[in-house]
Amino acid sequence: MHKKLFIPGPTEVKKDVLLSQTKPLINHRGPEFSNLYLGIVLKLQKILNTKNQIFIVTSSGTGAMEGAVRNFVKKRALHVGGGAFGELWYKISKANGKAADLIEVEWGKAVNPEKIRERLKTKKYDTLFVTHSETSTGVLHPIKEIGKIVKEFPEVIYLVDAVSSLGGTEIKVKDWGIDVLISAPQKCLAIPPGLSIAIVSEKALKRAIEVKNRGYYFDFLLMKKFFDEKRETPATPAVSLFYALDFSLNKILKEGIKNRYKRHQIMAGHVRSWAEKYFSLFPEKGYESPTLTVIKNTKGIYVSDLIKKLGEKGFTIANGYGKLKEKTFRIAHMGDLTLVEVKELTKNLDEVLKL
Ligand SMILES: Cc1ncc(COP(=O)(O)O)c(C=O)c1O
């Protein structure tokens, strides 16, 4: 039996998207692939209202996160914690030998943008890394407000991890001053895992020219050269996933991005009110992500048992992440899921929990 995915990635992929991958393969060094890649880039630029360069990379989101570190940190990186993924980006910087500091934030709280201003004022940093939707805590960090602050520091490249938010909630790349936006389409863009997305400004590309040891696989300047000259990728791309991404973007254009964001808000509203009736929400009030809800296990239930019983009914939700395991559980309402499906899930949760 298929257990419908309400986990925060990979999310449930609809049959039409799955089938879109079954087209025969094409030569990735030929015009058909070039058109496919260009089409994906143009569609993403239209959906996100940006003219920035877009790279589709054959790796999960972590790959593009590592690429961002290698390409844009010249002097010192400032990372914002507050959850497993914010802290992961910091660890990636350190693992790549970069000078890096972490602003520690209590898990479940949003970062206070003033803390960032204080640190940037020291003039030690040339890069700032922030997670938008922190998938371990369900917090949506205030990237718009942070962007206003970063504009006061023109030497700083502003990088945002939108792995669990891109396509599910609005991101204004230009207005919010985001230089590098990283994402992965197995979440809100609802395709199978295996690709990442990097949306990169001119300013960031100029920085990359000054950075040594960018590596090879995630060298964005090499990717730019291949794209600009031939609309190709340096290494063999996951062509079938490109089919799926193209198909999904067509669906999104048809739905309308604003309608998609609204659908995410409505699903989030339903899950939050269900959760607040019986438990409480983990994120700080006012900063809840519209793409996933992290629920505090105030009743002390055995979450693993809940997940198992729900699985027998055909649904998958996620336990808390890392140190939040059993203390929280997570319900994703992202991608192509609908309110009807989310209501079906909460009805089944009621039955399992006998609420
Ligand atoms: C916010 C966030 N950043 C980064 C990642 C890592 O992405 P991937 O698992 O695609 O490598 C995830 C994965 O869940 C995530 O949720």
How would you explain this protein's 3D organization?
Helices cover 42% and strands 15% of the residues. By secondary structure, the protein is an alpha/beta fold. It has two domains: 105 residues, Aspartate Aminotransferase, domain 1 (Alpha-Beta Complex), CATH 3.90.1150.10; 238 residues, Aspartate Aminotransferase, domain 2 (3-Layer(aba) Sandwich). The strands form four sheets. Strands 2-10-9-8-5-3-4 form a seven-stranded mixed beta sheet, sandwiched between helices. Helix 10 runs parallel beside helix 12. The longest helix has 22 residues. The radius of gyration is 20 Å and the shape is globular. The two termini are 25 Å apart. The relative contact order is 0.18.
> What is the helix tally?
12
Shape: globular
How do the helices and strands follow one another from N- to C-terminus? EHHEHEHEHEEEHEEEHHHHEEHEEEH
- The number of E-state strands comes to 15
| CATH level 4 superfamily of the largest domain | Type I PLP-dependent aspartate aminotransferase-like (Major domain)
Structural class: alpha/beta
What's the helical proportion of residues? 40-55%
CATH fold title of the largest domain: Aspartate Aminotransferase, domain 2
Q: Roughly how many Å is the radius of gyration?
A: 20 Å
- Ligands and ions found: pyridoxal-5'-phosphate
Which CATH C-level class of the largest domain is it? Alpha Beta
Sheet with the most strands: spatial strand order: 2-10-9-8-5-3-4
User: Low-confidence parts lasting 5 or more residues at pLDDT below 50?
Assistant: none
Largest sheet: 7 strands, mixed
**Overall tally of structural domains:** 2
